[in-house]
Amino acid sequence: MAKQIPAVVNLAFPNGRKLDVPTGLFIDNKFVPSVEGATIDSINPVTEELLATVSSATEQDIDIAVASSRNAFKTVWGRNFPPVQRGKLLNRLADLLERDAEAFAGLEALDNGKSAQVAREVDLPDSIACIRYYAGWADKIFGQTIEVDDKGLKSASTRVEPFGVCAQIIPWNYNIMMLAWKIGPALAAGCTVILKPSELTPLPALKFSELVAEAGFPPGVFNCVPSYGPIGGAALASHLNVDKVAFTGSTLTGRKIMQAAALSNLKKVTLELGGKSPHIIFESANLKDAATHVTGGIFLNQGQDCSAGSRLYVQASVYDAFLKELKASAEEWTAGYGDNFKEGALGGPLVSKAQRDKVVNYVEGAKEAGASILYGGTKWEGKGWYYLPTIIGDVTPDMKVVKEEVRLIIILFIHHRYSDDLRSSFVGVKIFGPVLVVSKFNTEEEVIELANNTTYGLGAGFHSSDANQCQRVQASLEAGTVWVNQYGLLYNQSPFGGYKQSGIGRELGSYAIDNYTQIKTVLWDYSGGSSQ
Ligand code: NAI
Ligand code: MG
User: What pTM did the predictor assign?
Assistant: First the structure.
């Protein structure tokens, strides 16, 4: 049912501070309601109460947004806007985000449920720096001159040109950060962007849209269309006038997007699909230090992190000693349960009731299968969709918590007999919660086998003070990012992405520019016809 909604919602933070957030779709630098009046209700996962109702794009709205993006690419952006000026606008956008960082951190906390302090100290500074990093790239994208003839009468040169209209579909776990990772390289490269935030957390991207207009980007360069995945997301993925789709989220949705691209106009596709990342403790590791990396690697953002280190392998000789350190470190992660705005709060609720119930089902399944709960293992008794930081031991490689690939879904999907009903009955493929599973190993060879025994390959980490071992192991792990004696830290300058079914393409660093550019080869003949 179409609802009339106010154009702006006035939100209150627990400290009494107020913030206005626009509720319309952001198209051509203006907030407009959905043509059909469709809406999304966004819930605060801490209070379980309605936070805001915003417009939701349907197919008609997507068509309007795509037309706006195409027009902007042809007339005011792309070839018609100098790279130096693109960089200047991106720098201005980063400055505005820095000015309003406190408000954005609060908004992330309200809409997603994450710790406001973590959002303030991690999400926002990293996102601001990411936009600045790509502002610097805008005028440093260039081709090559290739000599093809000794006499210099013929040559080849390459131009690095933007794809054009890019759809960017992001998840709910790091709203502003995922937005920055996506729009930074796309806008720097000269593409126009249609961003679709998750239906679970539409507010940060809408608030961010105001800054785009304030920074002075021409209308249509950045459009933002909150929508449900199967509606607005699917319309973007199959749109004939979209040149590229970039996606971060679940493997199943990634497959659908790739399929939609293949069946429509073969738009370019990049995917970041999460994983089931291994974290290894060798006996020579500094155990106390490693324990903080392990808990940080799984409990940050309640495990709702694509590269969360969810499979822990501990060398048998230090297993007991390490588990003691691990439990002590896990305790810190309930700080702030019930109040994600409290200073010192680290943990928060899961983003939705469905996400929390999925975690409950997994852990109950593990218990039934004979695993022992070494820490946590239940919901948190209180308001909000919290789950206790959980450590599961005595797991065997066949248990679903360790190896979550449900082949049936894949088979059904490939044979086009896949439906959303089926998906909801099997949707336990990734835990994506504060749940760590621990296994023992004896030898380096054995643990490399275990670590790589997965269809994913986003991240992997290990701790060892044996330099030769560090060299051997980093080279043996099948993952897009390997952390040595640390876990989870990312830099805007260094690439991030997946091996195997964790994705296609790399985000961040210079590599992300490749996701938004194509190479044109220009062949020159200066011989005046004298040379063949
Ligand atoms: P999802 O992958 O369905 O959603 C991510 C984004 O894709 C959202 O913006 C959503 O609206 C959009 N989307 C959904 N269906 C679509 C479609 N058919 N076409 C185009 N876009 C579509 O993930 P969801 O449902 O939010 O979470 C389910 C699970 O996915 C999580 O439990 C977790 O395992 C995984 N996930 C992984 C993430 C990562 O960082 N790699 C982030 C979010 C979820
Ligand atoms: Mg929400």
Answer: 0.94
